[in-house]
Amino acid sequence: MDVLLVSPDERSRQLMALSVRSIERRLGQELRFRAARNGELGTTAALRDRPDVIVADEIASRAGAFGLARTLRDDMEPYTGVIVILLDRKHDAWLAKWSGADAWFVKPVDPFELADRLLDLVTEKESA
């Protein structure tokens, strides 16, 4: 399963990967990670590579996580994978919903909660 991590902060991308990797054994699939430093690069990578999962940090500047999600959902060939956005403020939840994200979490994110929700979302998409 291909996973795209979007954040300007390398440490944040590493923590995202660590959290997401914890579902690998439960999912029974190898996870392959790609990274993008901002929403613009993330959008380009997602349109090109069509990863199964995208985890985007709200502070992914230059188009941002909300712009990334909205662009992918509104594309001529809409992105059907899982999009999760990590929010800086709980008040931005409406933006995450508007953008088409499947789930969102307010930072600091509980890595186990993120992993469990991702597993649920991926399992739902695969069984649909």
Kindly report the average pLDDT value. Answer: 95
- The level-1 CATH class: Alpha Beta
- The CATH topology is Rossmann fold
**What radius of gyration results from the CA coordinates?**
13 Å
Order of helices and strands: EHHEHEHEHEH
Instruction: Find the CATH superfamily.
Output: Response regulator
The CATH architecture can be named as 3-Layer(aba) Sandwich
Beta-strand content bin: 15-25%
Distance between the termini: 17 Å
Largest sheet: 5 strands, parallel
Estimate the helix proportion, in percent: 40-55%
Low-confidence stretches: none
How many domain regions?
1
Outline: globular
List keywords for this structure.
single chain; 128 residues; alpha/beta; Rossmann fold; 6 helices; 20% strand; globular
Notes on the structure:
This protein has one domain: Response regulator (Rossmann fold, 3-Layer(aba) Sandwich), CATH 3.40.50. It has helices spanning 10-21, 24-27, 39-49, 64-73, 93-99, 111-127, and strands at 2-6, 32-36, 53-57, 82-87, 103-106. Strands 2-1-3-4-5 form a five-stranded parallel beta sheet, with helices on both faces. The mean pLDDT is 95. It is globular and about 35 Å long. It is 48% helix and 20% strand.
Write the layout of secondary structure elements.
Elements: E1 2-6, H1 10-21, H2 24-27, E2 32-36, H3 39-49, E3 53-57, H4 64-73, E4 82-87, H5 93-99, E5 103-106, H6 111-127
Parallel strand pairs: 1-2, 1-3, 3-4, 4-5
